[in-house]
Amino acid sequence: MLRLENISKTFPGTRALDGVSLDLKRGEIHALVGNNGSGKSTLIKILAGVEKSDPGGRIVVGERSHDAVTFSPRDAKRAGLHFVHQVPALFPWLSVAENLAIGRGFETARFGMTIRWPDQHARARKLIERFHIRALPEMPLVALDPADRTLVAIARALQDQDGEHAGVLVLDEPTAALPGPEVERLLATLRSYAEAGQTILYVSHHLDEILRTSHRVSALRDGKLAGTRETRELDERQVVGMMLGHAPAGAALSQPRSSGAPVLTIENLSGRAVSDVSLSVARGEIVGLAGIVGSGAAELLSLVFGATARHSGRLLLDGQPFAPRDPADAIVKGLAFLPADRALDASFASMSLRANVSLPRVGRYFRGLRLRHDSERKDARDAIAKFLIRASSEEQSLDTLSGGNQQKVVLARWLHDRPKVFLLNEPTQGVDVHARQEIHQLLRAAAAQGTAILVASSDFRELCELCDRALVMAKGKIVAELSGPAIDTHRLTELSHFASQ
Amino acid sequence: MSLLLQRYGLAVLFVIAAVTFSLLLPDSFPTLLNVRNIAASQAVLAILALAALPPLIAGQFDMSLGSVLSLASVATASALSRFGLSLWLALPIGVAVGALLGFCNGVLIAKVGVNALITTLGVATAITGVLSWYTGGTSILTGIPDALTDVGSGVWLGLPQPLYLMGVVALFVWYLLEHTPFGRHLHAIGVNPSAARLVGLDVERTVVRSFVLSGALVGLAGVLLVARQGGGNPLMGNYFLMPALSAVFLGATAIHPGRFNVPGTLLAVFFLAVSVSGLALAGVDNWVDSIFNGAALVIAVALSTILGKKRRF
Fold first, then answer.
1. ipTM of the complex, rounded to two decimals
2. Residue of chain A with shortest Cα separation from B186
3. Chain B residues whose beta carbon lies within 8 Å of the beta carbon of residue A362
4. Architecture of the structural domain at B2-308
5. CB contact under 8 A, B198 and A349
6. Mind listing the pLDDT tens digit for each residue in B152-190?
7. Which domains, and CATH codes, for chain A?
8. Which residues lie closer than 8 Å to A314 by C-beta, 6 or more apart?
């Protein structure tokens, strides 16, 4: 039904995909698994035609074979590949019928001016029936259960297939936003589609869903296909094995450092996606938070930094009660935070490297009623040297630097003042291998100087390389703790995937 | 090379316009009288354009500049003429009225979260109504002390006195924007408000302050308008809004391309003034003013969008 042959993709500095071949049979649910950075999302993007692949690969759908280099979104659509993403683009305040018609066109009277609502609703009713959606055409989408909303998105994608179940449905983490019972209903519905002959490529982190739903599992590891196997021959441990290989990945490089009195203590902290979390980080210690999407690790950092409202619980800083009202308050008390989305939350793209580094403390350069630009400039130059930033001048605007160097500028911004506690979310996301090692090196140096570091990452190898202790988070809670040499990618992957069931 | 051209392109255009009109109109354009006239008449506009800078740099549009200018000038004139207050009381009243309106705009935009364009358009419309009720639509022309109007038309060391006030305001705004933490914070908030909050900047308070500062400067421009015109006019300010915005945007294509800046703004004000004055002296009707200012605004923004390649406004 769908065959990928020898798909490769090279980014500057990394090989995201290396000769991947995949074969989907008609009417099967084919699961695609892989850790962060395995090349999963790149593969989906190539399949959707939004990312150009390296020469040499082919995408074969049914009878037709396409060159993977020139495969465009239009080709994908014409070939019958339909994509439904994690957060589908739906319109909550429009009716089900309207949501189904958007992007396709409405049923109109002869001259295409007025919408004929009876026809529109009749069409919607047929789709609702065909895709087992629990809804009426007139209902606003928000009135539907979450699983049904996802089904509306699926129905919208598949409504125009020639045959009832021609084409391939590609689902990218469709259950990420669904509560537990809803997941089961969505999966059951997907199974019934497959029985009727629909081919589905199912991308997910949730191994239990994959084992219950799919017919076959393919795993990507470091851009290569690690294997395709029949699901009934597999258990969770074996899937993890496929994802990680059997090499002892990144054995703990770090020796446990002195763990003195805790600098940061979190007691029974709860927020929107975090419930009742307690932990502590000592001076000079690097503690990792391992968690897949939706684990709550990201929110935990933001709660501690005062950027998100805490519902309950208590924080202690150096043993003293600490309740930051907002980020400014947390910074004054000695905290620093590196958010996951650099472009959105950390970088001032059109401002100079110098201004980006000095921003939180620019007031300190204001002496004798003027900004001491020369001393600010000197500090920026020192930062370039100390934080291994590759830039031609401190006056360069930030957006002229590579991603890795921008990230080092953000690190320099915070580490300049030797914060007591440094909170980091996905510190090396979208950063090349070399810069990643340098960033790790800089973080270890900061810890050696006494900063307590709490780092959330879904890149478990990163946590193995970096952390003295790792806490596994799932569904807003801490479910396990590993320390020192016991931290390894296998254990972290198993624990975080199993616990999220 | 291309950076040099971007930085000084507007200055080159200014020189070309000045030289061209001097050659074409040797008897009327390059005369001391005309130069003084241009300089004096642009001081109010220049101060208004400078006043627009702080909120714009923080990413907030202010469409009420013109009507706040009218309000401040009517308030000053009314304090002098209807209430017979002394100059030393009336002038601060003009500035304070501007600052108060700026504070209202700032609170509505930054604290309440109403869109800046909507807030300031609403405020502008309401002010126009209040002014028309208070003045009955006519200017307040009596009882303005000569001491004030003398400043409006006076000359000091060969230059019109309003020009000195403009110079002081320009230096002050330039200092605030380039040499204080406040200016840096405004830039950061304009570039990325979400990141600004996460590096600990008080986004709301900084934006409110930028509007208060802007309002006070508009108030000062209003006082100068009274000095220039010998009275307060309830509608006059509206004629200044578009030229001021044109100048600010055109100014952002020069000196520090891609950034709203003080020298660029002044250069733009005088480029527009020289061109319009030259055209008027050449016998072109004065509706050309509007066309020229409007076209300059659109072309300036188009140019800076093309040159600046990313969102910097």
1. 0.88
2. A359
3. 181, 184-185
4. Orthogonal Bundle (1.10)
5. no
6. 888 888 889 999 999 999 999 999 999 999 999 999 999
7. 2-244 (3.40.50.300), 262-499 (3.40.50.300)
8. A266, A267, A268, A269, A321
